[in-house]
Amino acid sequence: MKQQLDTLNLWYSSLPSRDRKLLVAVSILLITTLFYLMVWEPIHQGRDQQQQKFKSQQEIYAWMQSASQEAIALKRTGAGNIKKASTQPLALILESSAKISGLKQNINKIESSGKSGARVKIDSASFDQLLVWLNTLEQQHGVTVTTASIERNDTPGTISARLSFEKI
């Protein structure tokens, strides 16, 4: 190793002064460029991505807050109008009411869970259509949502959701 450094130093010393200055300048430029491309730029891109992700999460949170207020208002206005629960199986109620509401093509899966429960997976459905369907289920069939996981899609106004239902 020392011999290689001595050889390199001897080679550098043998260069004319102008070439040595040029070699130092090019080396500094190369090191600066490598630092920028391998350290500085990735750090700033990651930071920008995280800021964008944070902003998106804040927008989703605000949207969910307004949607929850709307759902609470819908629940309050229709709480006295609930009809007696149907004797049909819950999965059948969900499927038929989704067909009537125009959500049938967006339902990916309906599976029964327990005696009076069911789980539904919905892809790329209109959020407004989903709210109308959920309200119809509660008002006309006595079916309530016990858990919900709703995600906004790239297309404005559409969502994907995983919902758990139970008969009242």
Strand line-up in the sheet with most strands: 1-2-4-3
- Globally, the shape reads rod-shaped
Query: Strand count, sense and closure of the main sheet?
Result: 4 strands, antiparallel
Please identify the oligomeric state.
single chain
Helix content: 55-70%
Helix count equals 4
Distance between the termini: 81 Å
Structural class: alpha+beta
Overall strand count: 4
State Rg: 31 Å
**What is the residue-averaged pLDDT?**
89
Low-confidence stretches: none
Per DSSP, what share of the residues sits in E-state strands of 2 or more residues?
A: 15-25%
Order of helices and strands: HHHEEHEE
Describe the structure.
The protein is of the alpha+beta class. It has helices at residues 2-14, 17-78, 90-101, 127-141; strands spanning 107-112, 117-126, 143-152, 158-167. The longest helix has 62 residues, at 17-78. It is rod-shaped and about 95 Å long. The relative contact order is 0.10. The mean pLDDT is 89.
